[in-house]
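hey
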C-alpha cells in the first residue's frame, strides 16, 4: 500500500513538474559573435528558452555539418554553404537570407584610414589581417576589395590570414596587425565601440555578403519544435531589428 502511495505521488509530481528543454545547438558565423548575444537574450525574454552557440568560420561549420555534427541551426556568413546543404538534403526546409554583411577596414593604431589605398602601400604597414578567403566570406570580400582597387600585388606579402574573422579580429585588436578587414557589426558592437578607427568599404568593391540561415536535418530527430521556433524567430521583426541595429542590411 505504501509503495502504491509513493508511486501515485511520484506520478503526480511528474505531471506537474516543469519540463526543461535542452538548449538547441547553433553554429554561428564568427562575425555574429556580439550580435548573437543580443539575439539569444531577446529570444529567451520572449520564450524562456536558451540557445547554445558555437562560433567559427562558415566553411568549417559546413564541413562539420556534412560529417554529422549535432547542430540544429546554422547561421552562415556565406549564402553558398546553406544552399549546398539544401542540395545535399541536410536541411528541413530551404535556407533563407537573414541579413547582408558590410565590410570595413579597422585599426587600433594611430593611422588615418581616409587615404587607405595609399596607406596600405606604405612600407610602414607590414601586416594586414584578413580572414581566410577559402572558408570565411568576409575574407573573400576583403580579397575582392583589394583586387578592385588594384592593391593585390602591393599587399600580397603583407597579408596575415586568420582562421576565421574572430581570429582576424584578435590580430587587429591586439595590434599584431597594423590594420585589417572585418565586419561592421564587430566595430560598432557595444564591446568594441570606440576602440580604434574604422572605415566602411564601398559595397561596389566586393560581392554582396548574403548571410543565410538553415534549419538542419539534425533537428528532425532532436528537439524539432524548439529548433524551428528559434529558426523562425530569426526572421521576426524583433530579430531583424537587432540585425539592423548591429550594422547589417536587411534582405
Amino acid at each position: 500500500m505504501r509503495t502504491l502511495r509513493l508511486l501515485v505521488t511520484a506520478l503526480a509530481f511528474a505531471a506537474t513538474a516543469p519540463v526543461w528543454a535542452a538548449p538547441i545547438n547553433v553554429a554561428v558565423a564568427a562575425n555574429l559573435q556580439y550580435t548573437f548575444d543580443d539575439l539569444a537574450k531577446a529570444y529567451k525574454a520572449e520564450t524562456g528558452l536558451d540557445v547554445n552557440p558555437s562560433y567559427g568560420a562558415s566553411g568549417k561549420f559546413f564541413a562539420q555539418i556534412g560529417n554529422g555534427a549535432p547542430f540544429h541551426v546554422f547561421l552562415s556568413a556565406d549564402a553558398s554553404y546553406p544552399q549546398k546543404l539544401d542540395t545535399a538534403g541536410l536541411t528541413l526546409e530551404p535556407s533563407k537570407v537573414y541579413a547582408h554583411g558590410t565590410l570595413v577596414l579597422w585599426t587600433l593604431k594611430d593611422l588615418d584610414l581616409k587615404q587607405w589605398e595609399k596607406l596600405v602601400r606604405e612600407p610602414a604597414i607590414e601586416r594586414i589581417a584578413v580572414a581566410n578567403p577559402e572558408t570565411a566570406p568576409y575574407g573573400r570580400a576583403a580579397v575582392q576589395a583589394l583586387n578592385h582597387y588594384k592593391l593585390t600585388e602591393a599587399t600580397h606579402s603583407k597579408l596575415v590570414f586568420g582562421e576565421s574573422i574572430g581570429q582576424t579580429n584578435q590580430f587587429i585588436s591586439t595590434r599584431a596587425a597594423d590594420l585589417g578587414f572585418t565586419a561592421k557589426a564587430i566595430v560598432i558592437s557595444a564591446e568594441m565601440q570606440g576602440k580604434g578607427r574604422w572605415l566602411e568599404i564601398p559595397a561596389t568593391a566586393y560581392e554582396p555578403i548574403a548571410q543565410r540561415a538553415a534549419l538542419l536535418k539534425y533537428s528532425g530527430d532532436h528537439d524539432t519544435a524548439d529548433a524551428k521556433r528559434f529558426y523562425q524567430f530569426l526572421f521576426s521583426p524583433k530579430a531583424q531589428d537587432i540585425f539592423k541595429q548591429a550594422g547589417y542590411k536587411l534582405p
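The beta strands are 24-29, 51-56, 73-75, 96-101, 103-107, 128-131, 159-162, 179-183, 197-200, 209-215. Residues 39 and 239 are 6 Å apart (CA to CA).
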